[in-house]
Design goal:
single chain
């Protein structure tokens, strides 16, 4: 599941975020390229903690996150910022960690770190939206290979090694805690 492509290829989302933050659509796209992988790693790391996978599944099932992709105007609502900040707090643990993510993204992209800090909760909300949609989606070809294993979008996301099976990855996570 290429989260960055899902978000980058959504012009309504890019336009909404650009208008909301008062920045160019190009800056939103460049920011997504830097922040989406970091948020995705944070979600994966959180899922790797004891009980994390269950917590992620519950959050995706009950959080109504998909509304951000269904209608990007929802990102302009005050609760979307609170939702995004709560997600960041859960996956990164502290505001300092989020600031570090934004700082690193600024170094890599040349974008202003304060703008990236404003973009980060929006990115967290839309990453969860994409994962929620992937969780709901019927099985889709993994890696575009209709002959290969069929994984849902969430299963693809949790297939850390890209071998077409998330089971070995989940078992390896479980071994860490047994």
């Amino acid at each position: 599941m290429d989260l960055a492509a899902i978000l980058r290829d959504n012009p309504a989302l890019i336009g909404q975020v650009a208008n909301q933050l008062g920045i160019s659509q190009g800056d939103v796209s460049r920011g997504l390229e830097q922040l989406v992988p970091a948020v995705g790693r944070g979600v994966r790391n959180s899922a790797a903690q004891p009980g994390g996978l269950d917590a992620l599944d519950r959050a995706l099932g009950g959080g109504q996150h998909g509304r951000y992709l269904d209608d990007p105007a929802n990102l302009g609502q005050p609760e979307s910022l609170a939702d995004g900040n709560a997600i960041l707090g859960h996956i990164f643990g502290s505001k300092d960690a989020s600031r570090n993510v934004a700082g690193y993204a600024a170094e890599q992209s040349g974008l202003d770190s304060s703008m990236l800090r404003k973009l980060l909760p929006v990115v967290a909300s839309v990453v969860m939206a994409a994962l929620a949609k992937g969780r709901e989606a019927p099985d889709v070809p993994y890696g575009g290979n209709a002959q290969g294993p069929q994984l849902s979008g969430l299963e693809q996301f949790l297939d850390f090694d890209g071998d077409g099976s998330m089971m070995d990855d989940v078992l390896n996570l479980a071994k860490k805690f047994l």
